[in-house]
Amino acid sequence: xxxxxxxxxxxxxxxxxxxxxxxxxxxxxxxPAEATVYLDFDGxxxxxxxxxxxxxxxxxxxxxxxxxxxxxYKIIADHFKLFNLNITxxxxxxxxxxxxxxxRIIITPDGSWWGPATGVSAIGSFVWGDDTxxxxxxxxxxxxxxxxxxxxxHQIGHTLGLQxxxxxxxxxxxxxxxxxxxxxxxxNQAPLMGIPFYKQxxxxxxxxxxxxxxxxxxxxxxxxxxxxxxYRKTTDTDISTENGIKIERQDRSCISLISSGDYSxxxxxxxxxxxxxGMLKPGFNEIRTNPASTGVLVLQWSGEFxxxxxxxxx
Amino acid sequence: xxxxxxxxxxxxLLFSLLLSAQQKEPPxxxxxxxxxELSNQALESLFKASGHISIELAPGFxxxxxxxxxxxxxxxxxxxxxxxDSRPGGMLSISRYKDPKGNIFYAGHLLKLHETEGMMxxxxxxxxxxxxxxxxxxxxx
Lengths: 314, 141
Fold this sequence. Notes:
Chain A is of the alpha+beta class. Chain A folds into two domains: 20-232, 3-Layer(aba) Sandwich (Collagenase (Catalytic Domain)), CATH 3.40.390; 234-313, Sandwich (Immunoglobulin-like). Chain A has helices at 2-22, 66-79, 91-96, 145-159, 218-223; strands spanning 36-40, 44-46, 57-59, 86-88, 102-108, 119-122, 134-137, 167-168, 174-176, 189-191, 200-202, 205-206, 216-217, 245-251, 254-259, 263-269, 274-280, 283-288, 296-303, 306-313. In chain A, a hairpin with a 2-residue loop joins strand 19 (296-303) and strand 20 (306-313). The termini of chain A are far apart. In chain B, 21% of the residues lie in helices and 48% in strands. Chain B has helices at 2-22, 40-48, and strands at residues 34-38, 52-58, 61-73, 77-84, 90-98, 104-111, 117-124, 127-134, 139-140. An eight-stranded antiparallel β-sheet of chain B has the order 1-8-7-6-5-4-3-2, covered by helices on one side. The longest helix of chain B is centred in the N-terminal third of the chain and has 21 residues, at 2-22. Chain B starts with a helix and ends with a strand. Chain A binds chain B through residues 47-53, 99-100, 114-115, 117-124, 127-132, 158, 163-164, 177, 209-211, 214, and chain B through 29-31, 68-69, 71, 73-74, 76-77, 79, 81, 89, 91, 93, 95, 97, 107, 109, 111-114, 136-141.
């Protein structure tokens, strides 16, 4: 009888163990891409990396359910939808990806081995080729899926070589290393490479932590050397329905949009008066508008992937 | 007199051109406090070593330590992790990547976690350098 009880307990525990890994839904944001970011939710043992000064790290499973994982994945995938990059929860996809174009983000509750932080990563490790992972510590993020997604995107940005987006005074002295979007008080946006938790988090062109004289275009840095990821072709993205332009957000002084290529644009009011014009570059763009220009505006664009127009209620 | 002035001006111009040509570009866009140029031979010798190593990577820059991990990732990338005795507690992580044309590249870091300074291997014009920089530019939260 005792033998059967032990057998049943073993069976049950095996079932529970397989259930933990079975809880992670298999998701891929862009399967044609070779470059891969693997979101590892089900725990990991890390050895033989720069993180292992004190020996092996046993990262516990995140404990997040399928709904939370899918929510987190969708937010992260949305941040990277411009790029020729696959966000996956499938370890097999990660293993098949080129070793110098992949990274693993371990999403785990406890980061006490590192210290008080929401995550940590080695800048540029995406191309190191040695499978150095990055970490997101969910306890420090109160297990909030939106915070976890923002923190994971931030850490992925680091692995892709991005520094923090910082704020400097007019003399070039750093005010804060992590920008929370203070530079425009009318905007509800904050840089993903700053503090991305309390406002709408976006990729930015700004001054990185390496100095006030430097400019870091987050999108250009992700797509370009040494990652060589590039952008998705227009037809492959969900922004193709808008002829390559997708309005992300607008407020009284700014229209934020994502462009799939180089376009010239013109912004008119409803009476056909030209308000502003200029160029859009691939990636994230902002068009400054006069807060007094209210009502219906019309954005027209023309460029390498065609032309189009869109009405905007301002 | 006029010819002499022109001649001297030309010499000055030539000299300044030569000087500017000799000034190399900095090896990295990151701010750094020190740089050490490494030979490809020294880097290559790291990947041939096993167990305890003692290699002079550059004049006056002796790397002593123990290989903790050596791994091959496919056919093209070999990675080394060395616990460095000459910088106590430090870890050298270095990878050697061979592209499909047979060109060899290296990437690496010498870090001790939570220190303020770290070293990063950078390449500029086919020369490799270890630059000493603030660790917050190498490891970030």
